[in-house]
């Protein structure tokens, strides 16, 4: 654990987290703009949760030796990973248990002070159906993969948080 504590205080740790998020966001844009898979409302919300982890990584990357920056980064990472798991799990429910009574919204809803779907529509505008399965890999749908990805993020996050309490041992 002491090694993970030391690692969490390096820019490399936070850069690896940020790079993983960039790769996942790149995949989402590839699916949308190259494979022409229409993102749904839940897809956009999951994308925002993923970007939240990226922003948390940037905060940690700024000054990983500084406990305040590191803990703010960890808090943001944990919150966004948790929200991502919840959103992806709900999305899986829409796909695997379709119901006319449990559907996602027709349009994304962002705060009036941050209408990112209007600012960056090519990334945050939803025009797909949440219940429709448009892609799968190894028998898992995209939201099922997102449950795994966000869940893995939560596991790594929990390990890194625990490691914070195993500081340097001085003889």
Record the SSE blueprint.
Elements: H1 2-8, H2 11-33, H3 41-62, H4 67-96, H5 116-119, H6 121-124, E1 136-137, E2 140-141, H7 142-163
Antiparallel strand pairs: 1-2
Describe the structure.
It is a single chain. By secondary structure, the chain is an all-alpha fold. 65% of the residues lie in helices and 2% in strands. Strand 1 and strand 2 (140-141) form a beta hairpin. The radius of gyration is 18 Å and the shape is elongated. The mean pLDDT is 90.
Short précis:
The chain is mainly alpha-helical and 171 residues long.
- What portion of residues is helical? 55-70%
Rg, Cα atoms, Å: 18 Å
Order of helices and strands: HHHHHHEEH
Strand content: under 5%
Molecular shape: elongated
Spatial strand order of the main sheet: 1-2
The span between the termini is: 17 Å
Main sheet? Answer: 2 strands, antiparallel
Regarding quaternary structure, what we see is single chain
What's the total number of strands? 2
Secondary-structure class: mainly alpha
**Uncertain stretches of 5 or more adjacent residues:** none
Count of individual helical segments: 7
Mean pLDDT: 90
């Amino acid at each position: 654990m002491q090694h993970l504590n030391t690692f969490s205080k390096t820019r490399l740790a936070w850069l690896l987290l940020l790079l993983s998020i960039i790769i996942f966001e790149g995949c989402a844009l590839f699916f949308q703009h190259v494979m022409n898979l229409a993102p749904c409302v839940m897809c956009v919300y999951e994308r925002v949760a993923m970007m939240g982890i990226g922003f948390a990584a940037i905060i940690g990357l700024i000054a990983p030796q500084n406990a305040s920056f590191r803990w703010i980064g960890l808090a943001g990472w944990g919150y966004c990973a948790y929200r991502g798991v919840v959103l992806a799990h709900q999305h899986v429910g829409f796909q695997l248990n379709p119901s006319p009574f449990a559907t996602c919204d027709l349009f994304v809803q962002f705060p009036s002070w941050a209408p990112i779907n209007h600012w960056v529509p090519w990334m945050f505008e939803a025009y797909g159906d949440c219940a429709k399965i448009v892609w799968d890999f190894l028998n898992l749908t995209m939201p099922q993969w997102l449950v795994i990805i966000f869940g893995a993020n939560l596991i790594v996050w929990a390990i890194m948080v625990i490691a914070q309490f195993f500081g340097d041992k001085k003889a």
